[in-house]
Write a structure and sequence with these properties.
mainly alpha
């Protein structure tokens, strides 16, 4: 059965939606790895700077920026990369 708003039949929409969720869940382990690496970069940069007697506010800020940049790079290139490209 097709509707006027959606020319594709309902079973096709359901299977396409299911495939989308399966693809999303298949990326979940990649998301966890990327988040773990980004957190490690943040904490490493922060603790390294604090070991050099940089004030905690600056060390935390630089560490957060390093973690955010790492997270962006990993999310774009590792987690949500275009498999078909």
């Amino acid at each position: 059965m097709t509707s006027k708003l959606h020319p594709v039949s309902y079973p096709a929409q359901t299977s396409r939606c299911r495939e989308g969720w399966q693809r999303l869940w298949s990326r979940f382990p990649h998301f966890l790895v990327a988040g773990g690496i980004s957190t490690a970069v943040h904490w490493s940069a922060m603790s390294g700077l604090m070991a050099w007697d940089i004030p905690a506010l600056w060390a935390s800020s630089v560490g957060a920026a390093a973690g955010a940049l790492t997270n962006y790079w990993l999310q774009k290139g590792y987690v949500f990369r275009c498999v078909k490209c």
